[in-house]
Structure formats: C-alpha cells, structure tokens
Amino acid sequence: MMDHTDVPNTADLPHPACEDLILTQVLFALSDPARLDIVRQLDSGPLEMAQCCLSDPTMPKSTKSHLMKVLREAGVIRNVAKGRGRLLSLRRDDLDARFPGLLASILKVAPEA
Amino acid sequence: MMDHTDVPNTADLPHPACEDLILTQVLFALSDPARLDIVRQLDSGPLEMAQCCLSDPTMPKSTKSHLMKVLREAGVIRNVAKGRGRLLSLRRDDLDARFPGLLASILKVAPEA
DNA sequence: TATTTTGTTCGAACTTTTTCGAACCAATCC
DNA sequence: GGATTGGTTCGAAAAAGTTCGAACAAAATA
Q: Using CA atoms, how far apart are residues A68 and A106, in angstroms rounded to an integer?
C-alpha cells in the first residue's frame, strides 16, 4: 500500500552537474584500465549495462556496479534506468564543455595490447 | 678508494622511454591535486626542485620526493641532478608524441579555486 | 676534511580503493 | 502471485597509495 507520503520510486542515481565536474576526479576515474575500457565501449554509443564488459563475464556484478559508480560520480558516464536494466552513456557534451579536447585526446590513444 | 668494479656514481633516476608511456599511469599521476599543481608549475619551464612547491613550505621533503617519483615513473616529468639539487622539467615532447593533445587539454583547464 | 644543503630511500602507520558475497529492490514474465 | 533478470548497496577483507621521520648520499663550501 502506498500513501501520499511515499516518494515516487526513483531508481535515479545522482549525477554531478556539468559545472561541478572536477578535473582530478575525471582523470582518476579514467586512470583505471577497466574503467577506461568501459569508456571506450561507450564511445560507440550508449550501451545497456548487461551488454557492457562482456570481455570479462566472470566479473561479479557488485564489482561492475562499483566501476560504474566511480565513472558516474566523476561525471564521465550517465547511468539511467531502462526497462529492467540500465542504460549507460558517455557524458561527451558535458565533458567537452568543461574540459575541451580532453576526452578526444584520450579516446584516440590505442588501447594497450 | 675506487677500483674499476665500482659503478660510476649515477645519481640518475630511471625514466621510462617515450614509447613505454602508459596512458592510465599518466592519468593516475595527474589525478592528484598536488601532483597536478607541480605539473602546472613546470608548464612555465624547468624548475629546481627547491623552488618547487613553495606554496606549502611545511611539506616534508620525503613527501615531496614521493610526489616527484610518481610523476617521474609515469613519464610526466624528468628529474635530473643539477649541482647539489635537482632540476625538474615537463616531458612535454614525449607526452605530445605519445598522447597528442592530452597535456594541452589538461593544462588549459583553470585550477580549482 | 667537516659541515651544510638538497634530495632519495626505507619502513611503519595510516588512509583510500578495490573486491566480492549477501541482502535487497524494481521490472518483467509466467 | 511467484520466479527470473538485472542491478544497487552494504560490510568486511584485501590491496594499493600516502605520509613522514630516520638514515643515507652527493655536491658545494668553508
């Protein structure tokens, strides 16, 4: 039973505003190979979380969720509910607005091996 | 007394070659505010270590040395003996060669506060 | 040569991150 | 409604990074 005091069911996770993005936090988020890999995947376009990180299917979901959290809280990706899963996308516009050229210079570097 | 088996006195610290620079390591080195500050200072040109980090004169020298070590091992700065001290410089050419545009995009971001 | 200046290295304490199972939650499907 | 799918959160343990004093080293200088 839901009464009027109940908050609407928001499975919405907090995302920092564009102007609140902090360079060192973004750099830190991108400084982990697994996280950088995720960003490279999202470079091609939004991806459902279940379709992400298929390279390592043994990764526990809590670990995966944590990687996404670091990227989201730094403002690198957006993570919104979609159906019964989650849609991930790169916050390219916000990153470009706040740190022009940064994302492009990183994404054009060839992955190690 | 020094015989022929003695290694020459190299106060030379190891620096990774340009082609061995690893993006995630560089990003990590730059993801710390104190380290990023150092890089910003070196943007104006080489600096003697004693003249660096004057903003916080209370910083223990071992701490300062550690910051430099992380930057050096990532390939961000060069640290060579000079007189009785050390000369620090940005490895701009190597960084530009390996990660075109990266350093410029980072250095043009205004420091927080 | 002794002293001072400048900085590296080591080791230990401390802090931050990462990892991952367990519990939980929402949406879908039967 | 019950089971399934997909994902977040919590808590604890492990791993990684930071801090800083003490010990050491090399160059300059007296």
A: 18
